Amino acid sequence: MKWFKFNVKKENTNYDGTSKHLREDLNLYKAISTRIIIFVVVIGLLASLLIGRLFSVQIMNYAYYEDLVARKELSPVKLDNSRGIIKDRNGVVLTTNTPFNNITYHSVGRMNSKTRFELAKKFAAQFKGDYELNDFESRDLYIFLNNNGADLVTKEDTKGLSANEVNKLKRERVSDAMLASLTKEDIEGFSVYLKMGTETSTSAALVLEDASDQMIAYLVEHQQDFEGFGWNTTWKREYTGPEGYEFLIGKVRDIPSEKYEYMMAKGYAPNDKVGISGLEYMYEDYLVGTKTLMRYNATTKTYELASEGKKGNDVVLTLDMELQKKIEERVMREYRSAKGVARRDLMNSLDVVLTDPNTGDILAIVAIREDSKGN
Asked: What is the DSSP letter of 11?
């Protein structure tokens, strides 16, 4: 076997180049990728744009965007306008609208129950009214003030019960002595607190009816102290025509329970007054008019006019009330005269309708009814 010998040439590890050669090999711009440089520049530009936009929104145009957010979060509040009046053919007014002031509440932001209750007590102390609670509400007040009634029930008591059943059990365990511990301030404040909770997204809660001009003036002057409270003018419907014709004109009252869903679908608010009988009911859509819209201004923290509503339309009847009175007197005399005729003594009613044969207009309506006592 032969052994082969290789000659290996050893490299010289000692650097013998120049400093210029070293600088060229270690050039920073060659070591860093061009893509990284572009990426850093783009990030810097985006950050500058973001900072500029934040400065514009939060500093330069803060009030505008705060108001814009409030408009998105808070629906406009609708205020009633006066109802149209009803007249006879000669312009004799049969119904009127007597104006009076109301103080209302519509929340303008998130507020916890404790803060709202303190605001309600503050309002009740300043604006005196008929603030009372029934037994059910008084028990709820005690529970509200005492850690939601945690001491009234145990875990064993509530086991297997629904939330409504637990609340019912808590109310049953509120004793008379506990109710007696409630202060007048708390009772009046809770009454206002409950009324404040009746607001809807488009309708303010009615807190105080028939408020005096002095109350309204104080509220306007101290608006910042009663945030969310406002006032409006509403009208009480009154019949002013001849006695006995109220049934024909009809009544204006709260929305009947059987019509509630229907009226809500038409855009009415829960506390609206509507015609429930007679001509008031028949011409409801014509008499009611349109509501005024108020939008919340986050800068001034007040509601401002968004669109002006319109008073309801008037209804002019074909009836002639002066003629009506004369016809009624004549029919009454004829009725009493007829009662004295043989075989007509059992008559107990008489109806008369007077019309214009040329137009078909009803000029007078008389209906006489007599009960068993001769009334």
From this structure: P
